[in-house]
Hints:
This protein is mostly helical.
Amino acid sequence: xxxxxxxxxxxxxxxxxxxxxxxxxxxxxxxxxxxxxxxxxxxxxxxxxxxxxxxxxxxxxxxxxxxxxxxxxxxxxxxxxxxxxxxxxxxxxxxxxxxxxxxxxxxxxxxxxxxxxxxxxxxxxxxxxxxxxxxxxxxxxxxxxxxxxxxxx
Length: 153
């Protein structure tokens, strides 16, 4: 089994560029680096899988002439995992971008809000503990409270 030198060089370049981009602070470059490392890993699995042969399911070839389906399953699994992690990283990048833009997304008070805030009609009176003790919590207590006040007067 001989490996094509061009594919080996491409795999090394993909790994090198991917690691370089992973070490950057920009999340977009981290995502691109992760994708390059994922593709380089797929290429590594492809190169180490050996030579191609007959399909293992179709045909009547000898066992030595068939290709091994396990590396193909590894590559397919790697593609799915890379897609899932890159989608998650893309969501994180979007969320961090939205949080960074939050300073620009401020709701300002309009004139009616300012007028209501400055209005004296909305101010509350000071409530003492005695007032709270005299105020019933439930309607049944209100009736009893009214009856006691009526009997006391």
